[in-house]
Every structure is written in structure tokens, then in C-alpha cells.
Amino acid sequence: MREASARLAELTRLVMAAKPAPFWLDRPDAPAARAPLRGDLACDLAVIGGGFTGLWAALLAKEANPGRSVVLIEGSRVGWAASGRNGGFCDASLTHGAANGRERFPAEFGTLQRLGAENLDAIEAAVGRYGIDCEFERTGSISVATEEYQVAGLRESTAADGVTFLDAEAMQAEVNSPGYLAGTWDKAGTAMIQPARLAWGLAAACEQIGVRIAERTPATGLASDADGVTVRTRHGVLRARRVALATSAFPSLVRRLRPYIVPVYDYVLVTEPLSPAQLGSIGWRNRQGIADSGNQFHYYRLTADNRILWGGYDAIYHFGREVRRAYDQRPATFARLAGHLYATFPQLDGIGFSHRWGGAIDTCSRFCAFFGTAHRDRVAYALGYTGLGVGASRFGARVMLDLLSGAPTELTQLEMVRGKPVPFPPEPLAYLGVQATRWSLAQADRRAGHRNLWLRALDAAGLGFDS
Ligand SMILES: Cc1cc2nc3c(=O)[nH]c(=O)nc-3n(C[C@H](O)[C@H](O)[C@H](O)COP(=O)(O)OP(=O)(O)OC[C@H]3O[C@@H](n4cnc5c(N)ncnc54)[C@H](O)[C@@H]3O)c2cc1C
Questions:
Q1: What's residue 466's pLDDT?
Q2: pLDDT category, 452, cuts 50, 70, 90?
Q3: Exposed/middle/buried for 277, CB within 10 Å: 0-12, 13-18, 19+?
Q4: Tell me, what's the pLDDT at 464?
Q5: 309 has which bridge partners?
Q6: Is the CB of 219 under 6 A from ligand 1?
Q7: Is 306 in contact with 274 (CB distance < 8 Å)?
Q8: Which atom of ligand 1 is nearest to the CA of 55?
Q9: First-residue to last-residue Cα distance in the chain
Q10: Which of 72, 155, 217, 333 has the CA that lies 20 to 30 A from 99?
Q11: Closest residue (by CA) to atom 52 of ligand 1?
């Protein structure tokens, strides 16, 4: 008992020495703030939200039609929210993984996989075309089994998903953790990126082709009439023919969308750079992103300067669906994450941490983005990526632009685009339901994946909770 509390005190000391800020955003070359929008302005397309979804929407709209005037307004700074503070796993999956996609959209799963692969290729092409230095490395990603019962699941996915199975020996030769029992390596489906630099680079690309970006410009309301949409902002009014809403986990300007999303907080640590000897003790020469296979899973990767980014496991929902900066820090979760990192890589026991942070994830009950229009089809939205939106946000942007065009396209005809997730109930039921689900998922991890009655009832209702 005394040993456990001494260990916890030591872990807490180590993580609290880290800077309470996202590693990716903490750079001397971060761009200067852009001026807010003041007074009245008119444009063809207004984009609200300067994360990946909004930035891609602005870029793709202007690329497709250079004559169209496009204005992007961001309430704070470009990329400050989820887009600049995530794990940097840029995944081809549009459906929060193959298993979720196959189960929810069986008839069009093949199409969604193709569109996802094309989407990731298009991101890579845009990064090259605009010279965005976002440390893009198409390393692929590995799912590891750390419990015996997970090995069979990985083996099954090998044939279905075209991934490479690694037995314990092969897995440990790739990345050396005594806890690894097997792995599957998806070699083409994921790239590792520096997400803040991608957001900043996309914003620069937008401006290069004529998009106007205003920061510190929160939109406070939307109204529409026969001529278009009026976006009220803190210091002015933006008149637009069409609006793309890309506000993620934040309260939607379209009120009826609010029940579909709960903001779930996910937490991340970054270590000090590994010495060549420390890195050598782990291997990891192919630098893949890694995630383990439990319900409460960790995701981890190397940064360009060979730190380990280590995140996930706890997924915290705060009563009342609020997004607050105070929630970005959670010492108990950081200490737990540090303990798990040292258990995975005992070679690194005691390595220090440089950064710690958290962020809100726009979680919906089907785990992947949903789309639609409001204000008589003049406003489109894409949200609900549930923790896998770095790559899928470009697809979400394309869907919004197709919906705003008014013409049917391959994307607007998809079942994934036409359907909606089941909304979450109001408080206090949402809070109680999320807590019951978290408890049940943790229990399932301890009981060889066995899902209790609550989880099976949610599965049957198509409802879920994830980060
Ligand atoms: C800790 C963490 C780790 C993650 N790891 C991964 C990962 O490794 N891989 C992955 O694929 N996904 C990951 N995700 C999820 C991924 O980051 C998101 O899905 C993606 O960034 C969503 O982009 P977005 O543009 O929709 O939202 P955001 O980046 O949240 O952008 C929304 C923007 O809208 C602005 N806004 C909101 N309301 C208004 C308003 N009224 N007026 C003006 N502006 C407004 C906000 O200020 C914000 O900048 C992670 C998320 C977190 C938090």
C-alpha cells in the first residue's frame, strides 16, 4: 500500500514537471494571430471554425472555384482545438476503423474504404503541392494485442482488412515491449503528421489562393432569408450565400444538432527526446503509430525528434456537455498514463515528460462523422468524428461542399451521409449513461472482452460511447 502511494507520488511528480500545453502548438515558429473581423462583410461562402474540417472546406471550395469569395472565421486561433492537439494519426478510415464501418454500413463499406484511401492520398498530395512541412510520414499503424483474448481478433482482421499479422516474436522485433503478444500492421492506411503544422500550413495555403481568414472571431448566431445567411460575430456581421459549419465539439450554432454530440476529453503526454541508446532498446525503426486493442486503449508514436507521444485510455465526460479550458489538465490521468508507458517500455522507466495536455473530442453514438444541412440547405455541417478525424475531416469538408452545391453527388448519396446517429439523452441521463458505459468497458477489458448486459443493450440499439 505504502509502495503504491509512493509510486503514484513519483509518477505525479514526473508528469507535473511537464509543461501544461500541447507539444505541437508550443513552437517558436507558430504564426502570428490574424486580425479579427470587424464591421460588415459579404462573401459567397463563409466557413465557421478553423480546425481541419473548416480549413479543408475553405481550401477545397476555393480550389474548385477560384472566383468564389471565401471567408473563414475562427473563434480563437487556427488549429488551437482538437486539430492542433491530437495524436497526429492521419488515418484513411472514414468510419472510425474497419470493424465499426463494416458493422454500420455493410452495403457500402467497400466504397467507404476506397473513398478513405483516396482521401489519404489526396491529403498527401496537397501537403506536397503546397509544400506544407508537417512531418508527414506514411509509416502505417500497428494494432497490438496485450491480452491473450485479443490475439484471435487481430488474426481475424488480417484477411478481412488486408493487414500484416505479426506474431509475438515478429511484433517484438518491430517494437520491443515485453507485453506484446501479437500485432497487425496496416502499412498504407495511416500517416503520422505534426498536426499543428498541418493546420497552420493549410491556413497559409488558403490565404495563398485568396481565402480570407479572421481569428478571434466567434460566430454568435445564424439567420437566413431568401438571399442567404447572416452570421453574427462578436464585432460585426458576415453575409454569405452559403455557410459551412465546422465547429466540432463546441456548442453548435444549429441548436437541434447539440443532442448528437458529447464532448469527451482525451489526454496526452510527450516524453523528453529519447537518446539513441533508449531508442535502440525499443527498436521502432519503422516508426509506425501504435494502438493497443482494449476498449480503453492507448495510442502512441514517435515525434520527429524521437520523443514518445503517449495518449488515450481515460475518456472523461463532464456533466453538462461543456467544453472548458480547465478540463485540458487532469493530473490523475497523466499519472496513470505515465505508469502505463513505463509498464509497456520498462527500458524507459523514469524518462521525463516535456508536455501534458487534453482536448475535447466530438463524440457521437455511431463513432464516425455525420452530415446534413440547415437553414433551407444554405448551411451544411460535418461533425462527430469521435477521435478519428485528422484524415476524415477532409472528407467531411468535401461532403459539406457537395451538400451546399445542391446537386446529387457520389458522396451525398451515401447511406453514411444520409443517415444520422442516435442522439444522446438530456442530462442527467447522458452523464449517468456515459459513466455506466465507461465502467462497463473497463470491466470488459478486465474480463477478456466479455460485454455485460448494458453494453449488449447499447450494441443492439446502435448506441455507443468512445473517444
Ligand atoms: C487529445 C486528442 C487526440 C486525438 N488524436 C487523434 C488522432 O491521433 N487521429 C485522429 O484522426 N483524430 C484524433 N483526434 C480527433 C481529431 O483531432 C479531430 O477529429 C479533428 O481535429 C476535428 O477537426 P475539426 O476541424 O472538426 O474540429 P476542431 O479542430 O475542434 O476545430 C473546431 C474549431 O471551431 C471553432 N469554433 C467553434 N465554435 C465556433 C464559433 N461559434 N465561431 C467560430 N469558431 C468556432 C473552434 O475554436 C475550433 O478551432 C484527437 C483529438 C484529441 C482532442
A1: 62
A2: confident
A3: exposed
A4: 64
A5: 270, 301
A6: yes
A7: yes
A8: 25
A9: 32
A10: 333
A11: 86
